[in-house]
Design brief:
Layout (H helix, E strand, L loop, with lengths): L5 E2 L18 H16 L4 E3 L9 E7 L5 E13 L13 E4 L2 E7 L5 E7 L5 E7 H15 L11 H11 L8 E2 L9
Antiparallel strand pairs: 1-9, 2-3, 3-4, 4-7, 5-6, 7-8
Length: 188
């Protein structure tokens, strides 16, 4: 297993729809193991393959539900069904989101409160999960990565302008910018 560098917004792989996984082999298993290790080290609650420079439809997630039960797994070639999204403005108290590809920044974003995600795991076993609340948000966020969309691309005003200013000020928004969890300090 290895911790991989996480691409920052502007990297072409983050802004391109990922390809379907056709080959389930040791290479895919290693990719998923590396994704778990990278996500854990970052730390994050989800990580999509494009975030580490691999344009495949794979994401991992790790979340503890309200009862303290761990929800951890991988989804390969997922499909996402999304419930309705309220027209109300996003709450700066309960709907703030962050992303390892826009490290250290958080903005309010409205998401659906319910989703159903389907796909397969590493052994090609079918996976179907219905989720609400924060887990639903994680699935929407990671699925977006596979579509070539970052959460900052979905922001409403004034957050869209704020995010654009931060991205510009940090020199992001271009190819070749990444960070390595456990090594790079992005708080400077």
């Amino acid at each position: 297993m290895a911790i991989r560098s996480i691409h920052i917004t502007g990297s072409p792989v983050l802004h391109t729809r990922a390809n379907e996984v056709d080959v389930f082999d040791r290479q895919l298993s290693k990719l998923v193991r590396d994704m778990y290790q990278t996500m854990d080290e970052a730390p994050g609650v989800g990580l999509a393959a494009p975030q580490i420079g691999v344009g495949l439809r794979v994401f991992v997630y790790d979340y503890e539900d309200a009862d303290g039960n761990p929800v951890r797994g991988e989804l390969i070639n997922p499909q996402l069904e999304v419930g309705p999204i309220s027209e109300e403005p996003a709450s700066t108290e309960t709907e703030v989101e962050g992303c390892l590809s826009v490290p250290g920044e958080r903005f309010a974003l409205k998401r659906a409160d319910w989703v159903r995600v389907t796909g397969v795991d590493l052994k090609k076993r079918p996976v179907t999960i219905e989720a609400t609340g924060w887990l639903a948000r994680i699935f929407q966020h990671e699925f977006d990565h596979l579509e070539g969309t970052l959460y900052v691309d979905r922001l409403a005003e004034p957050y869209a302008t704020q995010a654009a200013k931060v991205i510009s000020a940090r020199g992001w928004g271009q190819a070749g910018v990444s960070w390595l969890p456990g090594v790079d300090n992005l708080e400077d």
